[in-house]
Amino acid sequence: MKGWSLIVLCALALSVGAEELPVCKLIATGGTIAMRPAEPGGAPVPADTGEALLAAVPELADIATMEVTTLFSLPSPHMDPDRWVTLYGAVSEALARPEVAGVIVTHGTDVLEETAWFLDLTVGGEKPVVLTGAMRDATARDFDGPRNLLAAARVCVASRARDRGAMLVMQDTIHAAREVRKGHTSAGGFHSGAAGALGVVTGDEVRFWRRPEWRQRIPLDNEALPRVDIVAMYPGATGEAVVGAVAAGADGIVVQALGLGNVNPSVASAIEEALAADVAVVIASRVEAGAVAPVYGYVGGGAALADAGVIFAGDLTPQKARILLMLALQHGQGAEAPRAYFTR
């Protein structure tokens, strides 16, 4: 009888322990982490659901009570602003539940940094939003998905992960959404440049070194986001791409400029026409590191562009400047309306 009592008590203790685990919501969107060939020897395509991802990492059951939703099953090049809005809704709904400690989003790596930045800007509150993925598909011998998902779960439930915004966790490294970039097409994963990583996951321990210093929240007011195009500057560029973006109905344009934020006379003229049409123009750089600045006074130089009325994106990449401009234009149209969002 005493033996049975002990077994019952142990079972109750295990049950209570499981109930006390924090709840972590997994929202799967596809990407390489969920890919495998449709047939032997074929190329990887989206295949696995969020449930399949969880089943591949049984250790997750020791970290959190995992809930899963397969929101999309697509490669990340197919991600778009409409799907970002849908993802925002799913993340916000999960975080609004008191019992949910945080959210994990599994995602393809090609535009993972952009989705992370969109969620960082739009999702409020202190609970962590953790994005992760994989560089190799589920059939690869060195498939990195399970390890990345396990690390993401540890960050999701860590008490010190609160109030750090959206984070990207890959290769046991924690990055801030604003600063992270994909640094290699097939290996090496992601980096945060001169800012450095937020922290690391070592075994079952999550260590943070700093907090993101530059953060803002822009409420998502509309399901349809303003159209913002990115136009590249290169030797011999004619400015026709800027003119075409305006003609196509762009509400804003991000120019991927050279160096500190410079273009040639043809592109400069097209930018002035866009500004005259009350289309917001933001200058970012194609250079890997450093910020744009209005330094040069020649035609097309940064100082001349500043005098014309462009907005400088600081050290944001063109693709992240585009997202910030899209959200800013929700709250005021025109060439000048978004400026304050780039100086906060």
Architecture overview:
The protein is an alpha/beta fold. The chain has 2 domains: 22-208, Rossmann fold; 228-342, Rossmann fold (3-Layer(aba) Sandwich), CATH 3.40.50.40. Residues 1-18 have low confidence and may be disordered. It is built from 9 helices and 16 strands. The N and C termini lie far apart (69 Å). The strands form 4 sheets. Strands 4-1-5-6-7-8-11-12 form an 8-stranded mixed sheet, with helices on both faces. A hairpin with a 2-residue loop joins strand 7 (166-170) and strand 8. The chain has helices at 2-20, 50-55, 81-95, 112-122, 145-157, 240-247, 265-276, 302-308, 318-328; strands at residues 23-30, 35-37, 44-46, 65-74, 100-106, 129-132, 166-170, 173-176, 181-182, 190-191, 199-202, 205-208, 228-232, 252-257, 280-285, 311-312.
CATH topology of the largest domain: Rossmann fold
What is the alpha-carbon Rg in Å? Answer: 23 Å
Query: Overall pLDDT, averaged?
Result: 93
Relevant CATH superfamily of the largest domain: L-asparaginase, N-terminal domain
Task: State the major sheet.
Answer: 8 strands, mixed
Total domain count: 2
* Termini separation: 69 Å
Number of strands: 16
Reading off the top of the CATH hierarchy, the class of the largest domain is best stated as Alpha Beta
Strand share of the residues?
Answer: 15-25%
Looking at the structure, what is the overall shape? Answer: elongated
- Global structural class: alpha/beta
In DSSP terms (H or I, runs of 4 or more residues), the helix count works out at 9
Instruction: Please tell me the CATH architecture of the largest domain by its name.
Output: 3-Layer(aba) Sandwich
Strand order of the largest sheet: 4-1-5-6-7-8-11-12
How are helices and strands ordered from N to C?
A: HEEEHEHEHEHEEEEEEEHEHEHEH
**Helix amount, in percent?**
25-40%
Query: Poorly predicted ranges (pLDDT <50, ≥5 residues)?
Result: 1-18
